[in-house]
Amino acid sequence: MTAPAQEPHTTPSTGTHQQVGGAAHAPETVLSASGLRKTYLLGRVKVPVLHGVDFSLSRGEFVAVLGSSGSGKSTLLHLLGGLDSPDTHNGGTISYRGKNLRSLSSHALDRYRAREAGFVFQFYHLLPELTVLQNVAVAAMVRWGLGYYREKSRVRSQTRALLEEVGLGHRLEHLPSELSGGERQRVAIARSLINNPSLLLADEPTGNLDRATGDTILDMLCRLRAARALSMVVVTHDPHTAARADRVVRLVDGRVTDAQPL
Ligand code: ADP
Ligand code: MG
Questions:
Q1: Class at the top of the CATH hierarchy for domain 58-89+105-260
Q2: How far apart are CA 234 and CA 202, in angstroms?
Q3: Most CB atoms closer than 10 Å: which of 27, 87, 177, 232?
Q4: CB 122 less than 6 A from any atom of ligand 1
Q5: Which residues are registered as beta bridge partners of 79?
Q6: Which atom of ligand 1 lies nearest, measured to the CA of 77?
């Protein structure tokens, strides 16, 4: 998937759209979902979670998805990140830069997951037996496949630089078990960005952290987003986190109920 040649200029820190040559450009929608439905099967029992979610994210925008526990926030984020699929029948569509994820070949979907959509899991999901450096490099291995060995020295120096950028330059050889929660989340964020995605999808990135640590993680996410012109979706049940977003949507009873600036 390649970006269109002409794209509107976006101010990453605010998500607002500048005028170019005197004409206002409409925001480019990078990610959208329409009528999303997701039903889990627990044995033979159907557990409907999303009942027709509509969602859109403009280029450079930071959208917070608020919702109570169990409202389907993680489910929605997994679908947006191509980690799971909507219902086969009547499940709705997800489009990234105009392409329906469902129409992608499995190779193209792999590329979307590996290169376009960085994902930060709520519980970090670091590999316990790998060091900090290896945990981040492994995402680059997935991206490059066998080509990784050709790229290895460049990727390793990028990995080091990124880990320094997230404040972990002094922890490269540590194991996840030797890190605090905030440090683990920094590793997870570095891993999500090592392949230079244009989207960052974060699942309650501050949910397991104390307020002060959560604030530094959120500051860091906002800084990284501005520096890399990322479009970002953060799901949270914390209004304090949502207050940092350009736009907030709420997930209630399996639907997005409103969209409003805070
Ligand atoms: P949230 O992230 O908002 O807390 P989730 O998306 O994790 O909510 O879950 C929404 C609902 O779907 C919950 O009721 C949860 O129990 C159910 N659920 C999530 N994953 C599965 C699964 N793999 N199988 C069955 N039910 C699930
Ligand atoms: Mg969740």
A1: alpha beta
A2: 5
A3: 232
A4: no
A5: none
A6: 6
Ligand 1 centroid distance, CA of 72 (Å): 6
pTM for this model (two decimals): 0.88
Query: What is d(CA 1, CA 203) in angstroms, rounded to the nearest whole number?
Result: 25
State the ligand closest to the CA atom of 204. 2
In order along its 262 residues, the chain shows pLDDT tens digits of: 444 444 344 444 444 444 444 456 778 999 999 999 999 999 999 999 999 999 999 999 999 999 999 999 999 999 999 999 999 999 999 999 999 999 999 999 999 999 999 999 988 999 999 999 999 999 998 888 888 888 889 999 999 999 999 999 999 999 999 999 999 999 999 999 999 999 999 999 999 899 999 999 999 999 999 999 999 999 998 888 999 999 999 999 888 886 554 4
Domain edges within the chain: 58-89+105-260
Q: Does the beta carbon of 67 lie inside 6 Å of ligand 1? A: yes
Give me ligand 2 centre to Cα 203, in Å.
7
Atom 6 of ligand 1: nearest residue by CA position: 72
Any ligand 1 atom below 6 A from CB of 198: no
